[in-house]
Each structure stands twice: as C-alpha cells, then as structure tokens.
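1st attempt posting a full record on here, be nice pls
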Amino acid sequence: MKNKNTTIPGMFLRNMIFITLFSFGLFCLILIYGEYSEFSSESISLREEYIASQKDGLREHVTEVAHYIGHMKNQTEEKLKKSIRERVYEAHQIAENIYQQNRTTKSLEKIKKIIKYSLSSIRFNNGRGYYFAVSMDGVKQLYPVQPELEGKNLIDLQDSHGNFVIRDEIKMIRESEEGFATDFWPKPDKDPGIAYPKISFVKYFKPLDWYLAPVNILIM
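the predicted structure (as tokens):
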C-alpha cells in the first residue's frame, strides 16, 4: 500500500510538470508565432513602401528625362529655325545683288536665269536643305530636287495632311512678307505612309515677284 500511495502523488506531480511544460511550450509557440506574424506583416509593409517609393522615384526620373528630351528638342528646333531663317536671308541677298548688278544691262528673264542657276546648286544641313522659289501666282520657279516641276502652277498642291502648301505660303507673304511655314511629306527612304514635318522660312523678293525659301526636313 505504501508503494501505491507514493506512486499516485508522483504520477500527479509528473503530470503537473508535463502540463506545465506543455503549457509553457505552447505559450512560447504562440508568442513566437505572434512575433513572427507581426514581423512578417511589418516586412510586407516595408517591402510595399519600398516598392512604392521606388516606383515614385522611377516615375519622377522618367518625368525628368521626358522634360529634358522635350527641352533639347525645342532647343534643336529653335536652332534649326534660326539657321534656315539666316539661310533665306543669304539667298535673298544673293538674288538682290545679282538683280542690282544686272538690272541695267540684262533683261528680266536673263536675270531670273542667273538667280536660279546661282541658288539651285546650294545645299546645306548635310545635303538635306536646298532653296526653292515660287512666283506669287503659284508657279514653281526654282525646285532643284524636281526641276520638272519648274514652270508649273502648283497653287492647289496639298501635303499629306491636306494643307494647301503654296496657298498658305502666298497668304503669309501677302500678310507679312516673310515667316515660317510647316508642311508634311513622306521621306523618300522611309515608310510612305508616315508624313514628316518639313519646315521652311519664306521671304518675298519684290523685283521678281517671287518668294524664296530654304527647305529642311525636321523630324518632330
């Protein structure tokens, strides 16, 4: 009986110890799981904040690059406009000098031929730029890239966007005697379905009742 009496309390004690250890272990496990869940949640939150900040930074960087490209594009366009304006002033001066030197000794038709010959061979901007001349009735007087058009009336000529090119230029000349004009044409070595802007600066030449202009392809 003695062994039985001492065994029951021992078993009870062992059970209590086991229950206590199990409860403590379970508590630790719950605590660890809670800490891990909190850590995991914080990690996800931090990762999302980091990704969001990276996206915002990338978006700002892309915006800055786009603004920079736009700025450089505008600068390039302004430089080109300045260049072709200077070119047409040069052509106008050449025509004026030829006219003044020959007006008392040569016929007007002869002077026209000299001016056309002098301007037709001039190229600039890596060969893409050239001069053309149109009389105020819409007749092409000088067009070195397509000389077969010289002498033809192109008053109804339309570009790829449907703009009446010659009419618009004549209207500008009548209003202010000079100014920039832009029309749209496909490039010979590119997709014919794509129209590129061609910018020119037109200026009136009174002695011949022409307007002169240099042409250059400007890709926008």
